[in-house]
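Example 3.2
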Amino acid sequence: MIISKEKYLIEDLFGSKARVKILKTLAQNEELTISLIINKTRSNYSNVTKHLNHLKSLDLIQEKKFGRIKIFRYKIENIKARSLKKFIEIWEG
């Protein structure tokens, strides 16, 4: 049985509560430092870092570096990210 890539990605994306919290936080704030993401999601550094790397691999977020500061940006130009943001807005009302 072959599982389509699209189905796998959406199940993988929503398969973690922490990942969804991070995604929602970035969708609502557009750009945040890792410290603010940790603070807003009430998660730890290693967990947030792991999920941010996964979200980067899915091209839903982008990492920008300014010296030692890392800023994570929600990639609204990505149609999947834009659709997820709209879903979050509708769901959160």
